[in-house]
Amino acid sequence: MSAPRQHDIRAVLFDLDGTLIDSAVELAQALNHMRAQRGLPTLPVERYRPHVGSGARGLLPIGLDIGPAHTAFEALREEFFDTYAQCLGAGTQAFEGVAPMLQRLQARGIRWGIVTNKIERFARPIVAQTPALAHCAALVAGDTTAHTKPHPEPLLEAARRLDIAPAHCIYVGDDPRDMQAGRSAGMGTIAALYGYIAPGENPAQWAADHSIQAPMELLQKLGID
Predict the structure, then answer these.
(1) Are residues 66 and 79 part of one domain?
(2) End-to-end Cα distance, the chain
(3) pLDDT per residue over 50-61, tens digit each?
(4) Gene3D superfamilies given for it (predicted)?
(5) How many helices (H) and strands (E) would you count in the chain?
């Protein structure tokens, strides 16, 4: 895909964690609280950060050495969710540059929304508590539709809510599943390389149409001064 032309793009959809917001601090707080309850020392936020994009499946093996195949995983995941709910608002913030980038999109008449695998229980309050995200035109969470990314259904639902054809949308995310979902939905894709890139991941292999190193670079890709 060549550089997207501004007049072709009517909406930009974003992943949430690692693309618009840095939620690693709150997630680390929740996991470290669980570790403390078990007599384990806390781990630094940076130990968790690369795995945030994988949710509980990626974080519990780091925090508690328990993977999805373990018989205790489901119970620990629910405990993690309950603990995380108590930490909401304690440290999540928009990445630097997100607020002015979104303001510029709006000024040019380009609508924007969020498509995340984070369940609505967490996604909606986080969006509501983050000033930069106040004008989100559509929020599709991990339990809004029958499928989660990399299935295209959540992205197509967001486009439907915006009443904009998928071909006139771009999806921005920091995970290969984001790029796969965007392609399958018929949208242009942009990889956010400043996000939570998991160990061993090579973004060059994600087949994204474009990539950005900072939120404001998106404006350059769209030809917005």
Answers:
(1) yes
(2) 21
(3) 999 889 999 999
(4) HAD superfamily/HAD-like, Putative phosphatase, domain 2
(5) 9, 8
Distance CA 2, CA 168 (A): 14
Instruction: Give residue 113's pLDDT band: very low, low, confident or very high (50, 70, 90).
Output: very high
- Among 15, 174, 178, 209, the active-site one is 15
CA-derived radius of gyration, the chain: 17
Element (H, E) at 172: strand 169-173
Distance CA 115, CA 4 (A): 20
Quote the domain boundaries for residue 173: 6-22+93-221
CA distances, 52 to each of 100, 109, 110, 165, 219 (Å): 25, 32, 29, 30, 26
Inter-residue contact 143 to 120 (CB < 8 Å) = yes
d(CA 18, CA 134): 18
Please indicate whether residue 82 is annotated as part of the active site.
no
Give the separation between CA 64 and CA 70, rounded to whole angstroms: 11
The pTM (predicted TM-score) of the whole model is 0.94
